[in-house]
Design a protein that fits this description.
The complex is a heterodimer of chains A (about 500) and B (about 700). Chain A contains 19 helices and 3 strands. Chain A is mainly α. Chain A has a domain of about 220 residues. In chain A, β1 and β2 form a beta hairpin. Among the domains of chain B are: about 45 residues; about 30 residues. In chain B, the strands form 2 sheets. In chain B, strands 1-2 form a two-stranded antiparallel ribbon. In chain B, strands 3-4 form a two-stranded antiparallel sheet. In chain B, a hairpin with a 2-residue loop joins β1 and β2. In chain B, about 55% of the residues are buried. Classes of the chains: A mainly alpha (about 500), B mainly alpha (about 700).
Chain lengths: ~500, ~700
Amino acid sequence: MDMNEMILPMLILLPLVGAFLTLLMGGKRAKLAKLVALVFTVATFAVSLLLMITPVGELDKFNFTADWISAGGLKMSFIFVVDGLSILMVFLTAMLEVLVIAFSYKESDRPNYFYALLLAIEVGLMGVYLAADYFLFYIMWEVSLIPMYFLISWYGGPRRHYSAIKFFIYTHVASLVMLIGIFLMVFQAASINGVADFSFEAVKTALNGSPDSLFQSLVFILLFFGFAVKMPAVPFHTWLPDAHVEAPTAGSVLLAGVMLKMGSYGIIRVCLEALPEGAKYWQYVMIGMGILAMIYGAYACIAQRDLKKMVAYSSISHMGLVMVAMGTLSEIGIEFAIFQMFAHGLISAMLFLVCGTAGHNFGTREIPLMGGIAGKVPVYASFMMFAFMASLGLPGLIGFWGEFGIIAAFYQWIEPKDLIYLLVFCLLSLLLTAGYYLWAMQRTLFGRLTTKIDTDHIHDVDRVEAVVLGVLAFAIAIYGFWPDLALSYLADYSAYVGGLI
Amino acid sequence: MMFMDYVWLVPLIPVLCFVIVGFLGNKMGPKAAEGGFLVIIGTAASFVLSLLVTLEYVGFIGDGNLYPNAVENHIDWFKIGIYQLTFGYYIDILSCLMMLFASFISTMIFTYSLGYMHDQGPRQRRYFAEVALFLTGMLGLAVSSNLLEMFIFWEIMGLCSYLLIGFWSFNHPEGDDKADNAASAAKKAFLVTRLGDVCLMGGLFVLFFAMGGHLEYNVVFNADNLAAAYENNSEMLTLASLLIFGGVIGKSAQFPLLDWLPDAMAGPTTVSALIHAATMVKAGVYLVARCFPLFALDANVMLFVAVIGGFTAFFAASMAMNNMNIKKVLAYSTLSQLGYMFLSLGAGGYMMACSIAVTGGQIVIEEPELFAVGCLGYAAGCLHMVNHAFFKALLFLCSGSVIHANGTEDMRLMGGLHKKMPKTSITMLIGTMSIAGFPFFAGFFSKDLVLDVVFEVFEESCGTEEMIFIALWILGIVTAFMTAFYMFRMWFMTFMGEYRGHHCHGESPKSMTVPLMILSIFAFGAGFALLLGWDGVFTFMGSEHSEGQILQWIVGGWDRPNVGVHWLEELFTNWKTYVTIVLVFVAVAIAYLMYVKKSINPGKFSKDGQSVLYRTISNRYYFPELYNQFSWKLGYDVARGVEFIDRQIIDGSVNGLSNAVVGSGDLMSKAQDGNLHTYASVVLGGVVVLFVAALALFYYGGVF
């Protein structure tokens, strides 16, 4: 077999093998667990780098196809594909895995399970982003869900069981609805093709070959619901803040950094690529939900007292931007939806690391209990400020370009429709975002030194934490200075999807 | 092309200083004044380079010719869809002016900071790193070749102002209350300017698509392109202009977004000097001057600019009249002087808008006389910006010297300092005379040119506009009177009479007084630059081919040789100039009688501070109150509502639903039993049932 074809399966097999090996490192060998986990995630990251340095036009040489189930008119296969849409997500997943495993090096409670769960999550995530067969896609979707459930319910905070079960039920109900949608879609395609081939390509070709708007709009909404809960879109979002508050830091980072993107990835990959007619039908709903999430999430942030919960709501607000971008169904919109997914992946990872550090190092994440700690923990304060500034869209950092491109796409969409006043909502959300972040900084870092926590014993970030945060900060800055480093992967793909619609 | 090719180094040097001092500074040791020397050398290098570039641009060195068009160079940055965005530099006389005064004044301020901040210990490193980044923002803004790039530097300045206003927002040397105050002032500065910035960003989108996906200066401000876009959809251009001006209102603290600037005095005085003189608020003036060809397409936009400027000039001056804080008086005077600049730009632009017409894809000048007045307004606004930079930097640094020696900002605790700190006193007097408009001082020339323009616009316009412009002229005259009064009130209260404080250290060290002396030379003499002539130096955007070079009119150089001298001549043969001079002297006399001779009791006019007007002014017209109420109601109260919906309605109904479905007990207790198996089996069963059902459906539907 060609070496290139083995690259993509490696991305899934490496963490899988790593997960099993880590699991074995119980008891006396617990100290080795993080080492093993680190080795396997670094190896995965190295493989993903190989994809990144390949010119985007040549990515199809990595395609992997193998038969799996082929019986009774059903055809399910192992198909792995990487393209402009998935490559950044794969890279992000691999990178964040390395960083969170390094960051949680202090984990002492059953470390073998902890790291194994993190690796298992990577298996699922990689699978979702690489799969090009609906059955495989669905399986991988579920695979990513289960270890996250255990991560929250075993390693979480005081209300972890409630949050874990809420997370599980929400996403599971959503994925069931999605499954119905997948079946309907595949069997509709089968009525055209003659065989129920689950591969993305077959379904897309069949459905786009003979567009049926009624069917497409019906199936679209089922799939869309499944993906939107994962994103999450208001009003299906309440599982997210609870899950984040209770999840361990590593779990939060992966959840916000890459898991939420599964939802928007699914919408682009499935809903827009295979069901363009449906997308046109539901376009206003997507835009409306996106704007709602943006404003609603931003307002909810203002009211939060827990730093981590505030950041969780900010994720809802920022994923609302992605929804708006996808809703424009334009080339720019899709390009920057993906870019924003990548940007938010980096930024939210940093945000959750910062909030997690507050919990570990100060013993609290409650904003009103802190104050004036910048003088005590200057390095931490700088990282926190950097992360907040990146998230509020400071030009020159990656978050700004996501917002800029999305609002440009949105403007391009509203301008011919005489709906320019809708621009106010986008601008309002930018303002509110700046508002809650600055207010939070004022109350945590600045002003008089708090007496509500023991400030003599709080400590600054240690060396490992500083390196991890520094790497993320560097990535945010470098992509912010030269966004073409990421955008160059997206141009062809977004033009292709824009062309479909 | 000699130095022009290296102009990108001008903003790059300060950013390198920032990186070195900010990230590696702890290895430099305390001897290097925590990185201060490096930053000063870097800034001075930037200044020298911008001076060389300017000299080359005006033809003093190099091949000896004035560049007819702006110098532009760029590289591809990235693409938005099909639209290519670029990153580059753009040099014309406006950029040169900005670079020159920003880097020169910053060099002075940073040198001064060595003395002013010497007792701050390791914090100096943070200070010097942040001011270097601040200067990067300003210089980058000046040389940017398109509006998006400009916006990035614009926001970098916003960030730095946040960091520097909040420099003492923790561990304040004077206690926790001041730290709280600084933290809140920094937040306010960032948020209020951010409100303007989102408007500006909206304006960029409107302009971007109205101009067919371009934001480069040489495309957007090209006369032919503007004419084409105007004929296509003029409303969009008007909207873009207004939104861009919204950003200017925030950044330059014009009415109604002016309240953050007085609060920003919570930062170190050197930072105030930097914000008020060399950077930040000047960016707004620059942006209006830069977008002049765009704004001038719609007379109403320019009228709006003029009205906002004229009103702010008066409004802010009124708040300075009774303030006791030496820095706050200067802060209000900045607002007021910025108002003059916008008044001048707006009035000139209004005239220009009236004099041109768009026909057949071309901008045609129908009345060259009016157009010339417009050009004069543009030049007067820019000149006042430069002059103001000199005297305001001087004034702030002097007040810093006073505060440094006395340990207070309250003028009631000063007095009689002339004997104790003569150098500060004399230099500050020069600055005060300059801003008040004493004849032959820098401020006099530009301020009277501004008033002259406004009066000419009044004479040329008619109807409602005529009334508006005469009102603006009267406001301008009255403001000039008020300015002279409150500035001399400040100087008299500080330096004359008896010392009322507790302790004064005496004159400040050399590193502080030498920059004061250098600046005072410019605060006095900058106005004489008019004698140089300036023929053909102030230019607008041109279009590529010679027939269409309509907006590329040379300000004033318009068929009159040696235009600067011509302006001077007009200034001194004009009765209006003498009116203002008289008013200024009267104001100074009143201030003298009130605060030195004490023959007039100022309390008489305010019922000893009890009159309604006095209290309204002291409370800044209740603006901070209004802001608080506004942000609290629209921000926090709505947020609480959202939180309620989230917790009670959405989550409440979901929990209720799940209880109804699962049956007994609430989700919480169920979950704590660890009853995952129940859920898992239900879910798994669901999958199987659905799968079978779907399969059956399609099977009987005859798919297979």
